[in-house]
Design goal:
208 residues; alpha+beta; four-stranded antiparallel β-sheet; elongated
Length: 208
């Protein structure tokens, strides 16, 4: 009888341990934010969509180069080459279902880089405009030239850097912390890329 009781207890203990191992442990808000930033650094668009949301991912792709996925990746890799961050503070309020993670982002200053890019791009476009039509590059060739200019500027090791500190808000959804989409956070992480793109778009009368 004692042997049978011991066997039952061991079986029950094993079942409980397996249940505990199989349960999903909630990641801390800070861990979620760091994984989300890592997705951007690794240019993992699928993970970015999971952490940052579809709307934010769409802005990332639009700010890069919406015509081709390969070009999106090239630009994003160049933009995130110098990206670094420090988590300054993390607060969780489980009862309220909210959390805030304060992060300091440092990246290349996209405002300065985009200013240079526009100058070079317009200069090239002006030069080509005076060539005979049969000598002018195709639209695809011009797109590649612009991509080369932008990635070349981003690749420089002596680019001016900019540091911004932002609060990333999260909420509890199905007992997991999820990031609430915020353009200011993304803009800070990408060195002002979104605000620079918006400024250029406005100066061109709303054209992208």
């Amino acid at each position: 009888m004692m042997k049978r009781i011991c066997s039952v207890l061991l079986a029950a203990a094993l079942a409980l341990s397996l249940t505990a191992c199989g349960g999903t442990k909630r990641e801390s808000a800070q861990a979620v934010v760091e994984s989300a930033i890592g997705a951007v650094q690794n240019v993992d668009f699928a993970a970015m969509k999971t952490y940052w949301g579809e709307d934010t991912l769409g802005q990332m792709e639009s700010a890069a180069q919406p015509e081709a996925d390969d070009e999106d990746a090239q630009v994003m890799k160049a933009v995130t080459k110098h990206l670094s961050y420090t988590v300054k503070e993390s607060k969780e309020d489980e009862k309220a279902g909210t959390a805030t993670v304060t992060v300091e982002f440092t990246n290349a200053d996209m405002t300065a880089i985009m200013s240079e890019f526009i100058q070079q791009a317009f200069s090239d476009a002006l030069n080509y405009a005076f060539l005979p039509e049969d000598q002018q590059p195709s639209e695809e060739e011009m797109d590649q030239k612009y991509l080369d200019i932008l990635t070349g500027l981003l690749a420089r090791e002596d680019n001016k850097m900019v540091t911004n500190t932002v609060d990333i808000s999260l909420k509890l959804t199905d007992d997991q912390w999820t990031i609430e989409s915020d353009d200011k956070v993304l803009d800070a992480m990408l060195g002002g890329m979104l605000s620079s793109a918006d400024s250029i778009s406005d100066s061109l009368g709303g054209d992208s």
